[in-house]
TrEMBL record:
It comes from Terrabacter tumescens. CDD domains: cupin_RmlC-like. Residues 1-28, 345-368 are annotated as: Disordered. Belongs to the homogentisate dioxygenase family. It holds the Pfam family HgmA_C. Its cofactor is Fe cation. Residues 299-373 form the Homogentisate 1,2-dioxygenase C-terminal domain. This is Homogentisate 1,2-dioxygenase. Signal peptide: none annotated. Residues 12-21 have a biased composition (Basic residues). The lineage of its organism: Bacteria, Bacillati, Actinomycetota, Actinomycetes, Micrococcales. Residues 349-366 have a biased composition (Low complexity).
Amino acid sequence: MAHYQAVGSIPPKRHTQHRRPGQGDAPGELYYEELMGEEGFSSDSSLLYHRNIPSTTVGAAVWELPDQSTTPNHPLTPRHLKLHELFDAETVGTTDVVTGRRLVLGNGDVRISYAVAGAPSPWYRNGIGDECVYVERGAARVETVFGAFDVAEGDYVIIPRATTHRWIPVVGGDEPLRAYCIEANSHIAPPKRYLSKYGQLLEHAPYCERDLRQPDGPLLAEQVGADPDEQTDVYIKHRGNGPGGVVGTLHTLPFHPLDVVGWDGCLYPYVFNVRDFEPITGRIHQPPPAHQVFEGWNFVICNFVPRKVDYHPLAIPVPYYHSNVDSDEIMFYVDGDYEARKGSGIGKGSVSVHPGGHAHGPQPGATEGSIGVEAFDELAVMVDTFRPLELGEGGIAVDDGLYAMSWSKGAGRAAPGGAHSEG
């Protein structure tokens, strides 16, 4: 996100001496400058000034990741995954957002996981790509080397590749922390059509820089009650020969990772709340690109928010049937009443999988029932991928086995394999 920020203590000129306060006439020790940059010095970057040499480690071990294996969606079928059935209430208190994620869907470009967490995560760094974590429910403090955020329901947390951070859930609320985790093998950014050639969000974009929350910082170990010299483990997800090409390593540092006294640049984590998305509407039904919020390599992220709908006198507000021949469409239903899916069994916490090669659209009766409706009260997060998604162990565990039959006129008849449609 090319939106320059300068935080904390930095020198007037980059790549020049920056020192700690000295004693008397003696100069202080140098801070250690780290360039965190994308695309080999050819894209956005930030300079961070550390108390310690950022390359230092005193140990390395294997981090055995949760199951990252995937199973092809074959035979090809639409699916309904009930994410709220993935975690038992008894285990939430010991589950964290990093090590407790369960893989729902994935391919070589993006992995979608889900976690319901009540425990602080370890320090963590994704060395494969950026992460977009949508906070479905609950609240947390996210501490990073750039600073910290307080996040809550409806927040997208965008964390650039290789950013060391941790999640600390707020306990005692009405809901535990529920996190929908979209892990890219690339960078995640606003759609290019929303941006000027210099990176400013344009007037037609459904949000602007005022809607983005930058981290409060700098954040140092002593500010979180930690010893700056505390030996610390950092969990790293990186490329390798594991399932999905993903493996884990645990690095031990001889110091606490919160040692950045200042930074500046255009690469850093930020937060955007879905309630600040301004929906684009029209006289007739608007296609999903009108709802796009972010993009990565070979996938896009859209959100469907409460909004007024089509106002042509003959408009049909729900979507037409469509075959996205190049895409798999993954919809996570967060809140409200999703008009097009009525009668399918889908509700809050559901994920629908509409694979490329299968025409999909409203459930029977939804098209006629939507005529005359003036507004939709719905909130959903959609990921469209341009390569087929496979099912992770979490997705397989909560597949209802019924959804594919929900368009059949004979709702309730036995489906292949003995399943029955919910109609």
